[in-house]
Amino acid sequence: xxxxxxxxxxxxxxxxxxxxxxxxxxxxxxxxxxxxxxxxxxxxxxxxxxxxxxxxxxxxxxxxxxxxxxxxxxxxxxxxxxxxxxxxxxxxxxxxxxxxxxxxxxxxxxxxxxxxxxxxxxxxxxxxxxxx
Amino acid sequence: xxxxxxxxxxxxxxxxxxxxxxxxxxxxxxxxxxxxxxxxxxxxxxxxxxxxxxxxxxxxxxxxxxxxxxxxxxxxxxxxxxxxxxxxxxxxxxxxxxxxxxx
Lengths: 132, 103
Fold this sequence. Notes:
The complex is a heterodimer. By secondary structure, chain A is an alpha+beta fold.
């Protein structure tokens, strides 16, 4: 695979745990006991299917409080094989981009306004030093 | 596309009432948000992975003034689209960008 992560995948605050689509279905089913799990599964799949179709149609998706998805065209460029250093031609392609919404962005960063759990870790982490 | 349009799609395709569909759509995004807020990854096969990354504090520069600034340590959400999605977007189903290489 060419391209990929520019970032080293370290420092995820909760690295061991993850939620998959089936975990998500499970959780939705738990919170909506009046709807069968089978129906929940169909709905979750329909959500992502319809989002994918929308993106394929070149549409932008905006989920308020969550974020937006948009397909951008990446121009053809000359890249390099990171292993060999050899130049390679990368043709133009459409790539989906996600822009996190304000609310979720703050939630993820542990915004104090939303929850009142003030992590000690967090407080320690914020040293203000404006090097002017 | 908005949340309301996703609800509409569920109503049309699955035959759920709009009320129920809206409730479920709301729950889905709520759960994803809650999960990510706890620093947990969310992996949706065929769509992509949402991952919270920890960014260390670093020195940056105001691109306008060139002044050095300290960017504080923070957590950010990243989305890595699945290969399936990326491939789907590059199939020639619509011809918005005209000619494209097709192997």
